[in-house]
Design brief:
The structure holds 2 protein chains of 2 kinds.
Chain A (H helix, E strand, L loop, with lengths): L6 H15 L4 E3 L6 H12 L4 E5 L8 E7 L2 E7 L5 E5 L14 E3 L2 E3 L6 E3 L4 E3 L3 H4 L14 E5 L2 E5 L7 H5 L3 H8 L6 E12 L4 H7 L6 H4 L1 H4 L6 H9 L1 H4 E5 L4 E6 L23 H9 E8 L3 E8 L2 E14 L2 E11 L6 H13 L5 H17 L2 H5 L3 E3 L10 E2 L9 E4 L1 H4 L2 H14 L4
Antiparallel strand pairs in A: 1-19, 2-11, 3-4, 3-6, 4-5, 7-8, 8-9, 10-11, 12-18, 13-14, 13-21, 14-15, 15-16, 16-17, 17-18, 20-21
Helix pairs in contact in A: 1-2, 1-16, 5-11
Chain B lengths: L17 H22 L3 H5 L7 E7 L11 E11 H11 L12 E14 L3 E13 L6 E15 L2 E11 L15
Parallel strand pairs in B: 1-6
Antiparallel strand pairs in B: 1-2, 3-4, 4-5, 5-6
Classes of the chains: A alpha+beta, B alpha+beta.
Bound molecules: FE2/S2 (inorganic) cluster (FES) and fe (ii) ion.
């Protein structure tokens, strides 16, 4: 490592070193908090990948809009008068002023507060004050709002800054088999409950993303104080008794990674009210349906920074959630969480109460996440250091790389991708998968 | 709760009778003592003054356009809603060595002001207060400030007042601290 090197050189070196170190299940710790790395992540990852920006059900009426971001870039997520969804870059084509000052609202037009240029909610420029007096022939069409690519998967809306690249479908690749189960298990699909919740923490986006992709290894230590409590529901105790090693699975596809826990003794449908069985989505294959019926919970990370959760924990649930670890600076994130429930159950008060209790366990006020953010923020502080560079400090994600007691599932009884039993406890291949994706984008192979 | 920017105290118009003044001072004293207990991490003693049906809620706040007919404080989404059992579990948890969020303890200071009585009935008093809660963690001297308005219902019991119900309307749309533990509410 060039010790006195400038930040661009250092970042490129860190990227190169990551590529080499990953073969041994390592990466430089410094990539968790480094200015040069961060700048490149915004450009090479967040501008190029499909980023989750919201759920269709958040924008019910034409004109409903929400402030969203792709990486750090401000966008307006809006449903136009025809019902079409868009993600507009929030910057007026005249001199760049922003339109949106609220998190959510409804409007047929975006009127610029600076000089009054006005755009319809489908992005078209319609009004330019003194247009005839000022311009000979203003090309209004060319001045319509800059729009991100937008595609939807099962009601989950993703946007991309660059125009060219794989479709969302191609990008989600084999991981979709699992997302189908987690994000669209019932006939009517999931719907968002309330507004997303937001908290700011000194946490690099890669850390929680990797955690949600399969880090069951941390549960006993980070969350020991919570799991010892009387919270544990009776259903949870039964699973506990059955032993997590036999129930936990990791799944890795080319780009994404997740984990899920299955209970073999009887169908439990994530502890949903029984009627859920009559409302299963008929698009699911028999194997997918079986997997849902055995599931306790499914979590995972859609690279780069959208993590999913669906199921129950000792504190409550079942509930579904999608969470964004949105980068807001080197080593710093805004954590945004959405709560979703099957539409069939959205008015079931008793169910909602349990769902919310579970959802809140992973909130800043929740007993689980309060300890996560505390631990994660230490990583940010330590990795942004001269020591990390001078002593070439490396993070270790080599668990299970050379030798692992985890059992590969190769008989096709689960879904596509690489599936291993007890993976979340014995093997860190989920983390290597995500850092591999990171390295491919950062070294511009993708 | 009204759907305006923040919960307003409707004009009660009640007269300042000697009884009402007495109530005001008793209630204010309760809030200040409670704040001291939270600041000193005396959570078990704090929890002695909760009714069995107590509920504490922290709704999510959403920035909205002026004149929007949707509430700023979400009626369907909360950072937390906790009842009696859950509160006692939380107190027990935070006393444990491995409750990282509060080990070491946050350095916390409540400053309570704008105390106003709402509706006063024979056994229950509604009280509003504003608060600035200073929180310092870690060793680098960094701190967070959480500003809020609370609405509480205190119920008279044999051992004096007990907290029966509370909304904590935080002023932030993004929680400015990495977590929201009990002593910060
Ligand atoms: S910047 Fe928008 S009208 Fe001038
Ligand atoms: Fe955790």
């Amino acid at each position: 490592m060039s010790k006195a090197g400038n930040r661009a050189e250092r970042a490129e070196e860190l990227i190169e070193q990551t590529g080499e170190a990953l073969d041994d299940g390592k990466h430089p710790m410094r990539i968790f908090n480094d200015d040069g790395i961060y700048e490149r992540e915004l450009q090479r990852i967040f501008a190029k990948t499909w980023n989750f920006i919201g759920h269709e059900s958040e924008l019910e009426e034409p004109g409903d809009y929400a402030r969203r971001y792709i990486g750090e870039d401000p966008y307006i997520f809006v449903r136009d008068e025809e019902g079409e969804l868009h993600a507009f870059y929030d910057s007026c084509c005249h001199r760049g002023a922003q339109f949106v000052r609220a998190e959510q609202g409804n409007t047929s037009h975006f009127q610029c507060p600076y000089h009054g240029w006005t755009y319809r909610n489908d992005g078209e420029l319609t009004v330019v004050p003194y247009e005839d007096e000022r311009y000979d022939d203003l090309d209004k069409e060319a001045a319509s709002l800059v729009e991100a690519e937008v595609e939807t998967y099962k009601g989950f809306v993703f946007a991309r800054v660059v125009e060219d690249g794989p479709s969302l479908d191609e990008y989600l690749e084999e991981f979709k088999w699992y997302l189908d189960i987690a994000l669209d298990p019932t006939e009517e699909g999931l719907t968002v409950v309330g507004e997303p919740r937001r908290v700011r923490a000194e946490v690099d986006w890669k850390v929680p993303g990797e955690n949600f992709a399969g880090d069951s290894y941390h549960l006993a230590h980070t969350h020991g104080s919570s799991f010892e409590l009387e919270y544990s529901s009776s259903i949870w105790e039964r699973f506990d008794a059955a032993g997590p090693l036999s129930q936990s699975y990791s799944v890795m596809t080319d780009t994404h990674a997740g984990e899920y826990y299955l209970f073999d003794e009887e169908p439990i449908y994530m502890d949903y009210p029984e009627k859920i069985e009559d409302h299963m989505n008929s698009d699911l294959s028999e194997r997918q349906r079986e997997m849902f019926s055995k599931s306790m919970f499914i979590t995972g990370t859609i690279f780069p920074n959208a993590s999913i959760w669906h199921g129950f924990n000792p504190i409550g649930g079942p509930w579904a959630s999608i969470r964004l670890w949105r980068p807001v600076g080197p080593g710093e994130s805004e954590i945004v969480s959405w709560l979703l429930v099957p539409k069939e159950l959205e008015d079931d008060e008793e169910f909602l109460e349990r769902a919310k209790a579970g959802y809140q366990s992973l909130s800043p006020g929740g007993v689980l996440e309060a300890d996560d953010t505390e631990v994660w923020s230490g990583i940010s502080e330590s990795s942004n250091s001269a020591t990390a560079i001078e002593r070439d400090v490396r993070a270790d994600i080599s668990g299970g790389l050379e030798e692992s007691d985890a059992v590969p599932i190769t008989d096709g009884s689960h879904g596509p991708g690489e599936v291993i039993r007890a993976g979340p406890y014995l093997d860190e291949v989920y983390a290597r998968t995500l850092f591999n994706s990171w390295h491919e984008f950062m070294s511009e192979q993708r | 709760m009204q759907s305006g920017t923040h919960p307003q105290l409707d004009e009660t118009g009640d007269e300042w009778t000697p009884e009402r003044m007495q109530r005001f001072f008793e209630v204010r004293e309760f809030l200040l003592r409670e704040a001291n207990l939270l600041d000193q991490f005396e959570l078990e003693r704090w929890a002695d003054h909760l009714t069995e049906d107590v509920e504490i809620r922290v709704p999510v706040r959403v920035a909205r356009d002026a004149g929007s007919d949707r509430p700023e404080y979400s009626d369907s989404n909360h950072h937390l809603v906790v009842g009696h059992r859950d509160l006692l579990e939380r107190v027990a948890r935070l006393e444990k060595e491995y409750a990282w969020a509060e080990n070491p303890r946050s350095r916390v200071r409540h400053t309570i002001g704008n105390v106003q009585l709402g509706e006063v009935t024979a056994d229950t008093v509604e009280v509003f207060n504003n608060q600035v809660v200073y929180r310092e963690r870690g060793t680098d001297g960094e701190s967070d400030t959480i500003s809020a308005r609370r609405r509480s219902h205190l119920r008279e019991t044999d051992e004096g007042f007990a907290l029966a119900d509370r909304d904590v309307f935080i002023d932030h749309t993004i929680v400015p601290s990495r977590n929201l533990t009990l002593p910060l509410l």
